[in-house]
């Protein structure tokens, strides 16, 4: 979260939380988004059917960033409907912390921003994920161009698993 952003309104949903549970603070939720090696992106196809795919990404400046080839299913879905859900966490029942982010995917085309994001991608995932920046896109020799999208959360949910179970909602203005 950048220093100019307002922290979200945070509340515990007691209906889905253990007695005595407390809301998880936003910095803890943001840390999960920062450190996650993998995210699941849910989009909607133009005919209304859902589409879910795993992908890598970078949490930066208050948004989760991912990239996709312009002809891939997720890019075509986003052209018709930019509303998305991104999830990450531990695939366990009684331990860990899962995060769900709801928001709108917006394409990033600014050269300086893309260059900074390319450095962040490589720092997180290693040299195999080196991107150059050209014509408002990431570029890899083997893979070609990839559009980069940013999802600023409208709402984020945190699900604490194990004792205590908790469901925290973060609402952004």
TrEMBL record:
Domain Pyridoxamine 5'-phosphate oxidase N-terminal: residue ranges = 27-154
- The secretion signal range is none
Q: Which SUPFAM superfamilies match?
A: FMN-binding split barrel
Q: Does the keyword Cell membrane apply?
A: no
Q: Does the keyword Signal apply?
A: no
Q: Name one GO molecular function term.
A: pyridoxamine phosphate oxidase activity
Pfam (any one): PNPOx_N
Q: Where is this region: Disordered?
A: 1-24
Q: What is this protein called in UniProt?
A: Pyridoxamine 5'-phosphate oxidase family protein
Enzyme Commission (EC) number: 1.-.-.-, 1.4.3.5
Q: Which UniProt keywords apply?
A: Oxidoreductase
List the Gene3D superfamilies hit by this protein, alphabetically.
Electron Transport, Fmn-binding Protein, Chain A
Looking at the UniProt entry, the stretches that span the membrane are: none
| InterPro entries listed in its UniProt record | F420H2_bilvrd_red/Heme_oxyg, Pyridox_Oxase_N, Split_barrel_FMN-bd
């Amino acid at each position: 979260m950048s220093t100019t952003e307002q922290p979200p309104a945070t509340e515990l949903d007691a209906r889905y939380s253990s007695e005595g549970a407390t809301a998880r603070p936003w910095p803890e939720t943001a840390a999960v988004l920062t450190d996650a090696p993998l995210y699941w992106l849910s989009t909607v196809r133009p005919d209304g059917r859902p589409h879910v795919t795993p992908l890598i990404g970078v949490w930066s400046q208050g948004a989760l960033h991912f990239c996709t080839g312009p002809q891939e299913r997720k890019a075509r879905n986003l052209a018709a409907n930019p509303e998305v859900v991104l999830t990450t966490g531990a695939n366990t029942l009684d331990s860990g912390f899962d995060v769900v982010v709801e928001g709108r995917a917006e394409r990033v085309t600014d050269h300086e921003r893309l260059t900074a994001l390319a450095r962040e991608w490589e720092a997180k995932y290693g040299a195999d994920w080196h991107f150059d920046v050209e014509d408002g896109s990431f570029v890899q020799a083997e893979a070609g161009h990839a559009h980069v999208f940013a999802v600023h959360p409208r709402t984020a949910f945190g699900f604490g698993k194990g004792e205590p179970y908790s469901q925290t909602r973060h609402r952004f203005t």
